[in-house]
Amino acid sequence: MVVSGRNVEVPDHYRIHVAEKLARLERFDPSIFLFDVELFHERNRRQRKACQRVEITARGRGPIVRAEACADSFYAALDSATQKIETRLRRSKDKRRVVHYGDKTPVSVARATATLVDESLFTQANGAAAHAHAEEAEDEGGPGHIVRTKVHTATPMSVDDALYQMELVGHDFFLFHDRETDRPSVVYRRHAFDYGLIRLA
């Protein structure tokens, strides 16, 4: 488990509290080998009631599962983020346990790809983590600045896989390398439980 803060000092008693909260999540997926927890204090005065943000990323042999929450304290934000990631892990576990007609249990993605795991996917060529955060930009007092950059490895996948990944991380969109077109594409959530797809020409 890694607990870090951006513009925030993380006390030891909070690290212990995080470890106790996340320990119970391992029962949903024993293959999880790392919980990455980030704390961030929102400097925007208009967000004063929800200025403490906690992001949790669970890494295992299967897809990365992520959740984030904002609240008026880091303890409340952690509780909310933990509930979200627990729901996503439980949903993923239930999906792996679905039994189809004919008494056939489908092979889980984690089991089917267990022999294909390439440790280099978790690091870049320069040895940095694949899910890296760039340094936070200095607060210049106004909107319209890029304050965060993320770099991810791009493994080619189908549209269905991209939708599954989007649901696991809980975002409204997901950028991926489309296996069919060999180009960057985006799936996104629309109203009434529909999805959209954007492809580059």
Automatic annotation (TrEMBL):
Give the matching InterPro entries.
HPF/YfiA_ribosome-assoc, HPF_long/plastid, RHF-like, RHF/RaiA, Ribosom_S30AE_C, Ribosom_S30AE_C_sf
Domain of life of the organism encoding this protein: Bacteria
Concerning its family, UniProt says: Belongs to the HPF/YfiA ribosome-associated protein family. Long HPF subfamily.
Say what the protein does: Required for dimerization of active 70S ribosomes into 100S ribosomes in stationary phase; 100S ribosomes are translationally inactive and sometimes present during exponential growth.
Q: Which HAMAP family match?
A: HPF
The alphabetical list of record keywords is:
Cytoplasm, Translation regulation
> Where in this chain does the record put each Sigma 54 modulation/S30EA ribosomal protein C-terminal domain?
145-197
UniProt organism field: Nocardia rhizosphaerihabitans
Where, per UniProt, does this protein localize? Answer: Cytoplasm
Tell me which CDD domains the record gives: RaiA
Provide the gene name from the record: hpf
Its quaternary organisation is: Interacts with 100S ribosomes.
Could you identify this protein by its name? Ribosome hibernation promoting factor
Q: Does the keyword Cytoplasm apply?
A: yes
What SUPFAM superfamilies does the annotation carry?
Answer: Ribosome binding protein Y (YfiA homologue)
